[in-house]
Amino acid sequence: MKKYNFNAGPSILPREVIENTAKQILDFNGSGLSLAEISHRAKDFQPVVDEAVALFKELLDIPEGYSVIFLGGGASLQFCQIPCNFLIKKAAYLNTGTWAKKAMKEAKHFGEVVEVASSADDNYTFIPKGWTCPDDVDYLHFTTNNTIFGTEIRKELDVKVPLIADMSSDIMSRPVDVSKYTAIYAGAQKNISMAGVTVVIVKDDMLGKAPREIPTMLDYRTHVEKGSMFNTPPVVPIYTMLENLRWVKAQGGVKEMEKRAQERAKIVYGEIDRNKLLPRNSERGRPFFDEHLFRDE
After folding, report:
1. Helix, strand, coil proportions of the chain in percent (round to 5)?
2. Counting C-beta atoms within 10 Å of the first and last residue's C-beta, which end of the chain has fewer, N or C?
3. Of 2, 23, 89, 99, which one is the catalytic site residue?
4. Active-site residue 166, yes or no?
């Protein structure tokens, strides 16, 4: 019987993705070596990176002028790498959960941070409305899906400044207008691979503007110029991501993934609304956790 993991951490992957990865771990492309022990500079591995980049650009319809790079360190490293590269004087942050709060904390090391809105006082049970973003900030950062508290923003925010988003747990689950963003990042283990690789989509002409000397490993230009090969990348997670991107494309792409997600959500909410055994919020007459799942408040 198939078991399902409903935790907010590493996601369930399609069985064929796991099986295909396992085959390559035993023998990568008939080389006699395991995927886990080959050099990232092996001639058979560069095509893995190239195809993964190409599929990312295809599936998310990424326009010209953007680079896709694969890094280590998880989304948590991006909390400081983003402002290190893009915060010039002042940045705006929407505080909607644990990860947004952590991102704000790191950004304060590099410049002024404006909290445009927060739902912290109500334990992050909703996405704030009615807030405005200053026009003089370098970017607005937000977290699309707050896995610990469960609120999700499923659309691009309507502001006049560049957007930067942490899409760790819902990237590839819906179409995204990448042209509105300076950067998008995602810890891949939440949605598209195993733990160990982070995907970053960066707008090339926004790089190199920060008024500081950036350490080599933190400078996105380093990894763009070297095609994610400046240092040893997480080889196995990148391959698993490639297999999963192939699977997403074969299933019909991100529009099909969005359709399936909506269908699953209807099943969950239908049961929440139907089942009177679930605890109720006395003010709303609804299950008390109805804002902690996937709704865009």
Report:
1. 40, 15, 45
2. N
3. 99
4. yes
- Integer angstrom CA distances of residue 270 from 15, 149, 276, 297: 28, 20, 12, 17
Express each pLDDT in 195-244 by its tens digit.
Answer: 999 999 999 999 999 999 999 999 999 999 999 999 999 999 999 999 99
What is the radius of gyration, based on Cα positions, of the chain? 20
188 closest CA partner among 2, 23, 24, 17:
17
Residue among 90, 138, 155, 190 flagged as catalytic: 190
Strands 112-118 and 90-95: parallel
138, 166, 170, 219: the catalytic one is 166
Is 121 annotated as catalytic? no
Q: Which two tokens stand for residue 260?
A: 């399936």
**Token pair of 40 as six digits:** 């990232």
Which pair of tokens denotes residue 42? 């092996």
pLDDT below 70 — which residues of the chain? 1, 8, 278-297
Q: Is 99 a catalytic residue?
A: yes
* CA–CA distance, 90 with 96 (Å, rounded to integer): 19
